[in-house]
């Protein structure tokens, strides 16, 4: 089923993984402690950015919040990647991807390294990992091709969101250099994963989306995934740990904020959304009902 163009793209990605991939276990020089008077997360990428809530906070509060937003982001990465590896491992032998199948081993190898450094960072500098929130359960029995498609579609959405934060945090010179180096290393690997993800979706869509019902199920399931991933960016524990009052109120205010909803749809997931539209899926984003 897989096209020659797809095989060519994955051959290149495999070669790049071999030549550009790092051995993360030996790559980083882990500091004993990280200075807490520096940003660990770009102030422009915080969950309060683009809202009046940001202006209400002092610089000291923003720096404290940045620490815990970094921990939230890295916790989401490590737990999300564990789930991603698990789901991919469960289906990989059933896929008909030809030689491109080999790329999945590189993908898993790299995710394993990411999972390792994200959890190590959280434990070493924050003493904890924020626990995972509930993930959407597929209630219907899905056809195998549709299930395979959803596994990779969820990976694409998850990775595109992470990519936005890696870019913001790597490029911002106000962010602690060690945190920037982690974001940069992750960005480099994820750029290949995202190229693969968007491309493999097109391959899998041919067998998965064969009628209107398949498209409706995929749209429904992925829109739930979008909402879960969106809400996870507003973990009340990070507001609490930053010493801000009424964490739940802050969370709901930001979740419902039009500027935050627009950022998610029109910036963070702009390209991913376009890739889904191309294969016939129009996702429902948080706030779409207000349009
Ligand atoms: Fe990763
Ligand atoms: Fe990845």
TrEMBL record:
<dbReference type="InterPro" id="IPR025859">
    <property type="entry name" value="AurF/CmlI"/>
</dbReference>
<dbReference type="InterPro" id="IPR012348">
    <property type="entry name" value="RNR-like"/>
</dbReference>
<dbReference type="GO" id="GO:0016491">
    <property type="term" value="F:oxidoreductase activity"/>
</dbReference>
<protein>
    <recommendedName>
        <fullName>AurF domain containing protein</fullName>
    </recommendedName>
</protein>
<dbReference type="InterPro" id="IPR009078">
    <property type="entry name" value="Ferritin-like_SF"/>
</dbReference>
<dbReference type="Pfam" id="PF11583">
    <property type="entry name" value="AurF"/>
</dbReference>
């Amino acid at each position: 089923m897989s096209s020659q163009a797809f095989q060519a793209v994955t051959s290149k990605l495999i070669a790049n993984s071999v030549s550009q991939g790092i051995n993360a276990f030996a790559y980083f020089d882990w500091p004993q402690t990280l200075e807490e008077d520096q940003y660990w997360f770009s102030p422009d990428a915080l969950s309060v950015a683009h809202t009046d809530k940001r202006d209400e906070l002092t610089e000291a509060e923003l720096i404290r919040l940045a620490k815990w937003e970094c921990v939230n982001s890295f916790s989401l990465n490590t737990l999300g990647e564990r789930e991603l590896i698990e789901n991919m491992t469960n289906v990989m032998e059933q896929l008909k991807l030809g030689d491109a199948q080999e790329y999945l081993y590189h993908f898993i190898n790299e995710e394993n390294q990411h999972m390792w450094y994200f959890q190590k960072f959280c434990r070493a500098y924050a003493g904890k990992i924020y626990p995972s929130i509930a993930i959407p359960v597929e209630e219907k029995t899905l056809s195998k091709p549709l299930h395979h498609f959803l596994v990779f579609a969820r990976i694409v959405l998850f990775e595109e969101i992470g990519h936005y934060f890696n870019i913001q945090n790597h490029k911002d010179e106000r962010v602690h250099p060690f945190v920037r180096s982690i974001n940069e290393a992750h960005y480099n690997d994820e750029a290949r994963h995202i190229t693969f993800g968007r491309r493999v979706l097109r391959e899998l869509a041919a067998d998965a989306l064969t009628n209107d019902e398949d498209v409706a199920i995929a749209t429904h399931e992925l829109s739930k995934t979008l909402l879960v991933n969106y809400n996870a960016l507003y973990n009340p524990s990070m507001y609490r740990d930053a010493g801000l009052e009424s964490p739940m109120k802050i969370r709901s205010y930001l979740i419902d904020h039009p500027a935050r909803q627009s950022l998610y749809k029109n910036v963070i997931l702009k390209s991913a959304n376009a890739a889904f539209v191309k294969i016939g899926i129009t996702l429902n984003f948080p706030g779409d009902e207000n349009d």
